[in-house]
Amino acid sequence: REISGRSARLVGRKVVVTTGGTMESIDPVRFIGNRSSGRQGLAIAYEALREGAEVTVVSGITEEYELSAINRIDVKTAQEMQQVVSAEMEGADALVMAAAVADARPEQIEVEKINKGELTKLALIKNPDILAEASRLKKGNQIFVGFAAETGDGIREKGLKKLHSKGVDLLYVTDVSDGKVFGETETTGVLLSKRGTEWEFRAADKHELGRRIVSELAMELAKFNG
């Protein structure tokens, strides 16, 4: 996708965006993953590019895409994504953690395909919380954006809890009951700010959310060094 209508609010700023899902192998043919197309992260990357940012996309498993002018780094697993994010955050101004990272991975990856009749139990170990780990090393002039996919009642309240526990500046929480949002061009949810401001989105184009997030990034980063 070609970038048009550039402005300059993020010129000289480095923005790291993670997108897509991770793939945690069970054996040569099976894996644990999350249902993610990567569309939301790519929409944010596109809008950041339009504002003149230097954008690095840490890309998990996504739909096929072409986005000119980005630095694209492909990864598969949560551990690979964590390593790349840790390296890329040195000198970065902002991190947008839009990827759908698998919470767990198999304790052991089998070299050969597991017989179907033997696939009755799967021992799992917890994956790293990439955003929480990055937040522990967050610098005072960096802006972090998190995402939370929730189901059931109290979506906003769950989002507020994660906003504070993850140590981020902004967090977008969305209801993914029955697989909603994944793979769609529209999103419904609430963008929460640590400053107490909230923005509600109802069946909004994912680029609309992307523009709001990028606008908030630009305003927050303008407070550091002009």
Tags for this entry?
5 helices; alpha/beta; globular; two-stranded antiparallel sheet; eight-stranded mixed β-sheet; 226 residues
Written account of the structure:
A hairpin with a 4-residue loop joins strand 11 (186-193) and strand 12. The protein is globular, with a radius of gyration of 18 Å. The strands form 3 sheets. The protein has an 8-stranded mixed beta sheet, with helices on both faces. The protein has helices spanning 39-50, 78-88, 130-136, 155-165, 206-222; strands at 14-19, 23-25, 31-33, 54-59, 71-74, 94-97, 104-106, 124-126, 143-150, 170-175, 186-193, 198-205. The protein is built from 5 helices and 12 strands. The chain has 226 residues and is an alpha/beta fold.
What are the SSEs and their pairings?
Layout lengths: L13 E6 L3 E3 L5 E3 L5 H12 L3 E6 L11 E4 L3 H11 L5 E4 L6 E3 L17 E3 L3 H7 L6 E8 L4 H11 L4 E6 L10 E8 L4 E8 H17 L4
Parallel strand pairs: 1-4, 1-6, 4-5, 6-9, 9-10
Antiparallel strand pairs: 2-3, 7-8, 10-11, 11-12
Structure in a nutshell:
This protein is an alpha/beta fold. The chain contains 5 helices and 12 strands. Strand 11 and strand 12 form a beta hairpin.
- For the biggest β-sheet, the strand order reads 5-4-1-6-9-10-11-12
Structural class: alpha/beta
Which regions are unreliable across 5 or more consecutive residues at pLDDT < 50? none
Overall geometry = globular
**Range of strand content:** 25-35%
Counting DSSP E segments of at least 2 residues, the number of strands comes to 12
- Write the H/E string, N to C: EEEHEEHEEEHEHEEEH
Helix percentage: 25-40%
Compute the CA-based radius of gyration: 18 Å
Largest sheet: 8 strands, mixed
* Total DSSP helices: 5
Mean pLDDT: 90
Amino- and carboxy-terminal Cα gap: 30 Å
